[in-house]
Specification:
The chain is an alpha+beta fold. The chain is built from 10 helices and 13 strands.
Length: 376
């Protein structure tokens, strides 16, 4: 591993080091500061329920780093080996220079007026200038939900200062996301300025309050349905990763809701209530097929059809089958708590790549979100 790889891994491991402090720590009291304790007692079980099954049993500080941090690795042609990735160059231009010289990137992009129209404010509805939509949905809303999920996870495991660890963990994943999206980068872009300086910071600040989280989780039934990320051997690839959020929006029908799945694209469909605990959801739409960045730093993506079928229990995903234009054209995820007997704590997955190769793996609910698999 290179010197830069060691530095970046040390930075990200710092973000999850609090996860190992799960011994007998006293639960926060009412006297705790507002930064380490939500303002309402009922907000501690909005996203992380502690069910012990499904995606709720899988999500953890490590799973956030792998799914959010390396989300772009889903695309075809992406370097999936996280130990040989060119962290050094991407850190210098994609992170350090964003904070040191943001004005240069904005001027190269076309100036602050264009930057505000395309990246910051919903002022343009041109198909090629909808960067702001992704920033509001994926970075602001998704990042805020991630922070609150981690806050509840750390709190449930009696880690001191859970809100602070959650903020650090979330921003570290955002940093990894920017780094992994731009291998061999030679200049910083305006997209990184918008993400790191505005929306990723804004997510932590906005979702410090309970109101946005309560609305999204109780009214829209938001949940983190990320994939079961794993390291496959002997090829040492990060496989089956990707951060996804689901929403079930009421439409005035008793047992049917509008289903939305967001991440590297969007799927729309219906979610049907089967009984008091289970839902079956079906969605179709588009996922990212190609992503390009021009010389000005303007990011563009092309979409292709995608679809999926999802079975959940109490909004904790149990089984999903998805198709995508990305590297893995077909993916099956069976989360912990579904298999019977001694395998009930294990989740399994299988994907078929664009080259008609199969990758398989498993995760354990006690492994903090890191799985192992086979791939050549």
């Amino acid at each position: 591993m290179t010197r830069w790889s060691r530095r970046v891994f040390a930075f990200t491991l710092l973000a999850v080091s609090g996860a190992h402090t799960v011994q007998a720590q006293p639960a926060p009291t009412r006297a705790s500061s507002s930064w380490s304790k939500p303002s309402h007692a009922d907000s501690t079980r909005l996203l992380y329920k502690g069910y012990g099954y499904g995606s709720d049993a899988y999500n953890s500080p490590v799973s956030v780093l792998l799914n959010k941090g390396f989300d772009i690795f889903q695309l075809r042609g992406s370097p999936r080996n996280i130990t040989t990735f060119t962290y050094g160059t991407s850190w210098t231009y994609g992170i350090a220079h964003v904070w040191q010289y943001p004005g240069e990137a904005v001027e190269r992009f076309g100036g602050w007026k264009k930057f505000a129209r395309v990246e910051l404010l919903p002022l343009s509805f041109n198909y090629r200038e909808l960067n702001w939509f992704v920033n509001y949905t994926e970075h602001l809303t998704g990042g805020g939900l991630t922070m609150r999920l981690l806050d509840e996870w750390y709190r449930a495991h009696h880690v001191p200062m859970p809100r602070l660890w959650a903020a650090v963990n979330t921003y570290a994943a955002s940093v990894l996301n920017e780094i992994s999206e731009q291998p061999n980068l030679k200049m910083h872009g305006a997209g990184g300025v918008a993400d790191l300086m505005f929306f990723d910071v804004g997510a932590v600040l906005l979702f410090h309050w309970d109101q946005p989280t309560r609305f999204l989780t109780r009214t829209l039934q938001a949940a983190d349905w990320s994939s079961q990320a794993s390291i496959t051997l002997p090829n040492r690839q990060l496989q089956n990763n990707g951060q996804y959020y689901s929403f079930k929006i009421p439409v005035g029908l008793e047992r049917t809701r509008l289903f939305v799945r967001g991440g590297m694209g969007a799927q729309l469909g219906i979610s049907q209530k089967l009984d008091d605990e289970h839902h079956l959801s079906i969605g179709a739409g588009g996922d990212t097929e190609v992503r390009t960045i021009d010389k000005s730093g303007h990011e563009r993506v092309s979409f292709a059809p995608a679809a999926g079928v999802y079975w959940d229990r109490n909004n904790s995903l149990l089984v999903s089958v998805t198709t995508s234009p990305a590297e893995n054209v077909l993916a099956l995820n069976v989360y912990p708590g579904v298999l019977p007997g001694i395998a009930r704590h294990v989740g399994v997955w299988a994907v078929r790549t664009r080259d008609n190769a199969w990758r398989v793996g498993l995760v354990h609910r006690e492994a903090l979100g890191l799985g192992l698999g086979y791939g050549r």
